[in-house]
Amino acid sequence: MSFSGEVKEELTRQQSPGRHCQIAEIAAILCMSGSVEEQEPSGYRIRVVTENADVAARFTALTRRAFHITPDDEITASPARRASEARCLTIQNPEDARRVLSAVKLLDSEGRPTLDLTLANHLVVRQSCCRRAFIRGAFLASGSMI
C-alpha cells in the first residue's frame, strides 16, 4: 500500500464526534469528488465517486450519523484506470439530497445547488475542529502524498 493509502486508512479511523464536524467533512468530500445532478421534476441527487473503498465507507458512515441517510453504493469500472474499480455513492431521494446540500451550505438563496462545488462556505468551517474535519475530508477525497 502506498504512503497516501496508509494515511487515508488512518484518517478514516478518526471519529468526528460533533455533527458540525461531520457536516464539514461531508462538505469537503462533496467539493472534491461529488456532483449534484438534476432530477425531474424539480429535485436533485448527489453522487460521490471514489476508487478508495475506505473513503466510500467513510462517506456512508458520515451521512448515516449526521442525516440518517444511507447512500446507494454501486461498483463500476473506473473511468481513470481500467484495472481499478470505482465506487459510486448516490443519494437518490430529492428531499434527502436537499437536506444534505442545505446543511453543507451548497444551496443558493433560491434553493438551487451552487454551480461551484469547489469552495467551502465559511459557515461550514467556522470552528477550528470543523476546519480540521474539512481538510481531512478533502485529503480523503482527492489528496496524495509523495
Can you describe this structure in just a few lines?
Helix content is 45%, strand content 18%. It is an alpha+beta fold and 146 residues long.
Please characterize this protein's 3D structure.
With about 150 residues, this protein is an alpha+beta fold. The protein has a single domain, classed as Endonuclease I-creI (Roll). About 45% of the residues lie in helices and about 20% in strands. The protein contains five helices and four strands, in the order ααββαββαα. A four-stranded antiparallel sheet has the order 1-2-4-3. A hairpin with a 7-residue loop joins strand 3 and strand 4. The longest helix is centred in the N-terminal third of the chain and has 15 residues. It is globular and about 45 Å long. The chain starts with a helix and ends with a helix.
Name given to the CATH architecture: Roll
Give the low-confidence spans. none
What is the name of the CATH class? Alpha Beta
Shape descriptor reads globular
Largest sheet: 4 strands, antiparallel
CATH superfamily: Homing endonucleases
Q: Report the radius of gyration as a whole number of Å.
A: 15 Å
The span between the termini is: 13 Å
Strand content: 15-25%
Number of helical stretches of at least 4 residues:
5
Strand order of the largest sheet: 1-2-4-3
Helix vs. strand class: alpha+beta
Mean pLDDT: 86
Fraction of helical residues: 40-55%
Q: What is the succession of H and E elements?
A: HHEEHEEHH
The number of domains is 1
* CATH topology heading: Endonuclease I-creI
Number-wise, the strands total: 4
